[in-house]
Amino acid sequence: MNKLKVMSIFGTRPEAIKMAPVVKELENREEIESIVTVTAQHREMLDQVLDLFNIRVDYDLDIMKAGQILSDITTGILKGLEEILIKERPDLVLVHGDTTTSFVAALVSFYQQIPIAHIEAGLRSYDRYSPYPEEINRHLIGVLANFHFAPTYKAKENLLRENVSEDNIYISGNTVIDSLFNVIEDNYIFDNNQLNKIDFTNKKVILLTTHRRENLAGGIRNIFGAVQELILDNPEVEFIFPVHLNPKVRELATDILGGLERVHLIEPLSYKEFANLMAKVYLIMTDSGGIQEEAPSLGKPVLVLRDTTERPEAIEAGTVKLIGTGKDEIIYVANSLIENEQEYSQMSNAINPYGDGVASRRIVEMILYYFGYRQDKLEEFIGEEERILEMNP
């Protein structure tokens, strides 16, 4: 048989982190010709991940520009990607998650009648504007995709309700856990020496991240206001906030949190540094999606600063709480974890439902199965929810 030509397309740092182990697995298979195309929807942050995982890029659209909006990203990818797909004619295009890069890549692939596989398929909040535009991107990719690699049983259920054929859905686990396990180191020394000076043992250090579009309208002010009060009320608490590159986020962070004692505003970290920082802190407050999946593997409770989440599994497992962006609620829930050791222990010891570190191998094996290079279908990832169902049918 001829080699199977697989093109992986991604453009942001979160996509790159989750696609990296898949790309490396593709590269190791003699039956596969792996091609990597990046849009550089994020430039600097994307390049950090490419360097970390030593990923060779075959095509780079380099679309990022100052002040770009969604329509700029969409048209830039549309114009640049079609020519590449016509030239290469891959047997399969891989896209990940919910970015504009992933949606447009799936759309252009469909125009060229090239099969599409969607990694991290089936996540839903069922609120079209939260997260925005990611929720609609997920739905649209789900309509366009031929194969759906769902990270969890619940994600598979979402796809089945949308009339996706069960034959084309496979529960793989989440590839972010594969990447995470590859970069965590005992006794890690940070490149940012400011972090090496923080007493993670005797202080209750809270990691904060916030950047989502839907929070910029007012939620982020509430979040920063809650940080102010938590610092004043808890002398044992310190905050670390790697400030997102979005100018609006940086301006508000400087205005509200700048100069506060025990609040460390730092530049964005490389993925390896950030992952090892997560491993050291006491608690994480975030509006990120991926952190909801990563932190439970490290035994870190997560407070999600959003009104909705497309990742309910960790909430049900007990390691994540969805608390919104109301100032009083943030303060109340954070204080309960700072003060109540039993409640903290329950969250930090909850079981992560998202993966076991071999999702990428499952995905590549199933690609080979779908295209006739493997005869036997690989067993799906079994998370905690599925184990409970098996025990209590």
UniProtKB/TrEMBL annotation:
KW Isomerase (keyword) present: yes
Entry EC no(s): 5.1.3.14
Record has Isomerase as a keyword: yes
UDP-N-acetylglucosamine 2-epimerase domain: residues covered: 24-367
Family annotation (Pfam families): Epimerase_2 (PF02350)
Superkingdom as given in the UniProt entry: Bacteria
InterPro entries: UDP_GlcNAc_Epimerase_2_dom, WecB-like
Name of the featured protein: UDP-N-acetylglucosamine 2-epimerase (non-hydrolyzing)
Record organism: Orenia metallireducens
